[in-house]
Design brief:
It is built from nine helices and nine strands.
Length: 231
């Protein structure tokens, strides 16, 4: 598992902190604690008191939402380099999403008092914290757009690519990408009956584009899957 310097390196080249100026990045990292949790643990839930931010270093987070009458249900999975918790830091209101660990994971924790300390010393730092919120907003807009795809096979492919962090491009050096998603959760995310979603997965698996196992889907050919969405 990664050491603290390795964790800093990972989040400095992937995700939110990689888009911030080096001085701000170092200020954040100097106040972070490296923590670990086993699969199945919950970091926080919808309605919990406000707290700090969490940056995934190794493993996977499941993000659950409960925006209206339904839910909570899993809506997305985080890849290393992704940070969460900025909304509660901005508003100091209860958590709007739930964050759970789907496999043994390590992550950086930036406590809420540390965030307050950073922005008290430099009020302009809020702008850089805002970049995390904008990244989540972009993901949400893309997810909403994909759910408007009428063809259920293409819609399923688009959702799988988003969950794997390769919706628009394949990360350099990625031979395959594993997602900790169950077939039941995928059916909910694609607005399909579980039987229909299962049929789509079997078709993609027969074509050599994915590999399905218990609560896992491995994307084997992200470029080929994206090609299915063209036209």
């Amino acid at each position: 598992m990664p050491t603290l310097p390795q964790a800093h390196a990972i989040v400095s080249r992937e995700g939110w902190l990689s888009f911030t100026p080096p001085p701000f990045r170092q200020t954040v990292l100097a106040r972070c604690k490296l923590e670990a949790l086993k699969a199945g643990a919950t970091i926080y839930s919808v309605g919990d008191p406000p707290g700090g931010m969490y940056g995934l270093v190794r493993g996977s987070f499941a993000i659950s939402v409960a925006p209206g009458e339904r839910g909570p249900y899993v809506a997305h999975f985080a890849r290393p380099g992704t940070w969460f918790g900025e909304a509660a830091a901005f508003t100091e209101q209860p958590r709007r999403i739930s964050l759970a660990v789907t496999r043994d994971s390590k992550f950086l924790h930036l406590p809420l008092p540390a965030i307050r300390e950073i922005v008290t010393a430099d009020p302009g730092a809020w702008r850089f914290f805002g970049l995390a919120a904008i990244a989540h907003n972009d993901t949400a807009i893309g997810a909403a757009d994909d759910l408007l795809i009428r063809d259920h096979v293409k819609r399923s492919v688009a959702v799988l690519l988003r969950l794997g962090g390769c919706r628009y491009s394949t990360p350099q050096g990625s031979m395959s990408i594993e997602i900790d998603v169950s077939q039941e959760d995928l059916a909910v995310m694609t607005n399909l009956a579980r039987t229909t979603s299962g049929t789509v997965l079997r078709t993609l698996e027969a074509a050599g584009q994915v590999k399905v196992s218990y609560r896992r889907v491995r994307i084997l050919a992200p470029d080929a899957l994206r090609a299915m969405l063209e036209g």
